[in-house]
Amino acid sequence: MPGNGAGLESRIVRYSGYLLIAIAIISFLIALPDIFITKLPLYGHPASSFFIFNITATVYLAAAIIIPTAVLVGLAIFSLFDQKKRNVRSFNGDRGDAFYRYLLVFVFIEIIVSEVIEYANPALSEVFPFDSGNPSVVALAYSSQVLMQSILFQLLPLAVAIAVLLYATGKLNLRNFISATPGTGETLLISLVVALIFSIVSGGPALAIFTDFLSLFVLNAIFLKSGFLRAFLANFSISMINVTASALISSSVGTIILTVLLIYFGFLGAYVFMGMGLKYSASAAASRSRDNVNRVPKTRNVPETELFIRSACPDCGNTTFHVNPDMSLKCTRCGKEIPRDAMEVPNVRVELRRS
Fold this sequence. Notes:
The protein is built from 9 helices and 7 strands, in the order ααββαααααααβββββ.
């Protein structure tokens, strides 16, 4: 069972995630009145700078962007606190602190991306060429970006990838399609391929392609592990930090506080990222060790039994669990449940020697 250290780390990760999401939602809500009440400077001009179609920006277009964004964010928040286990990736009950770990890693990656762009090619950071000092304009622009990116570059291609994977393994049906969570290796491969394709297709300088690839790769991994809604929330939370920065640009104290928070989130994300890497390496090493054991010739005339003991989570390699009433084990890190009579790849070999 988890020790005090593991419990403290989990709480820090979870509450840090809460704080980041809260900042994003508050910034979004503060920006809403001006979007619908005040005539924004971009209304009446082409919307191509922040929308997929080159149409005139109006308050009705703003509503078509803001309302779906608000609904998806609301559903994502509900999914985080909904404890009922459902056969849907975005509504799969309590998954421990896994999503918040992915979120902090995403923050870490985005901070690196923004610093690389700012140092190597500052012009790329000017994503929207209109009044970026207006928080409401920034909120509308980034809401549009998050909505379009999540649907066109994630939901559709990843749904196809999942369907192809299930078809290839002979498991394609509606239940598996909406609930299947690929393994770590499959998640990394699918995320990498989809991110690479869309980063190249989107075009632009090599630096822009690389940074887009990094961001989309992490978001795709969150999608495959935690579901579309939580991936959308992660993208939304990071994007709305730009609204916060725009609102605090004239306040030196506010800017310092936001900078300190981002440094904190970044360092915590780096710590989580290294921890995940070490656990994945340990899990891969254990898997190779099991494969080597399975290839050892059997001892002649010595009876032998291979067993699977629930000693480590097959998904993340974690070794601490909660014991459920039915004696199944629930991983404290990623939330995977291992049934009482689980049958997995044998990880223990018992040789019965004659006395």
